[in-house]
């Protein structure tokens, strides 16, 4: 069985998220999604509208996703890849080159983002600032 993993916040779930999860799942037989916890998002300078548990429930309901785990730190990726026997690590191409060091452990794939949609854009369109959400 070929296992794939991807990481993200998945706040204000939208069709761009669905597209990347579908494409990630097509690269293997089993898709694991690591969702950034609220505490980790605060370290990254992000505030989420939905709690970790709410975002987890949303992502678990997507048919392409087989398993969801928490992402608590930048440093957990190598451990996740080893302990979960990951074959393919997937991120959006806005991260291109940032995770090439993981190629020692598995294949690294950067998928194109869906044009004209992002959580940041949704927040901007709704007039939500970093302080409000």
UniProtKB/TrEMBL annotation:
Q: Does the keyword Transferase apply?
A: yes
Q: Its Enzyme Commission number?
A: 2.7.7.39
One annotated GO molecular function is: nucleotidyltransferase activity
Question: Which keywords does the record carry?
Answer: Nucleotidyltransferase, Transferase
Question: Is Nuclease among the key words of this record?
Answer: no
Question: Which InterPro entries does the entry link to?
Answer: Archaeal_FAD_synthase, Cyt_trans-like, G3P_cytidylTrfase, Rossmann-like_a/b/a_fold
Any Pfam family from its record, for instance, is: CTP_transf_like
Tree of life domain: Bacteria
Per UniProt, residues of the Cytidyltransferase-like domain are 5-124
SUPFAM superfamilies associated with the record: Nucleotidylyl transferase
Q: What is this protein called?
A: Glycerol-3-phosphate cytidylyltransferase
Origin species, per record, is: Metabacillus niabensis
């Amino acid at each position: 069985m070929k296992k794939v993993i991807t990481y993200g916040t998945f706040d204000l779930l939208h069709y761009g998220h669905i597209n990347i999860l579908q494409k990630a799942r097509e690269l293997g037989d089993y898709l694991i999604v690591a969702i950034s916890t609220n505490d980790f998002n605060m370290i990254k300078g992000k505030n989420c509208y939905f709690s970790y548990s709410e975002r987890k429930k949303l992502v678990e309901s997507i048919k392409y996703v087989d398993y969801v785990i928490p992402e608590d730190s930048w440093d957990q990726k190598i451990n996740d890849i080893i302990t979960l026997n990951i074959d393919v690590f997937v991120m959006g191409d806005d991260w291109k080159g940032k995770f090439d060091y993981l190629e020692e452990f598995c294949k690294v794939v950067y998928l194109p983002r869906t044009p004209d949609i992002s959580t940041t854009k949704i927040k901007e369109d709704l007039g939500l600032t970093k302080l409000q959400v």
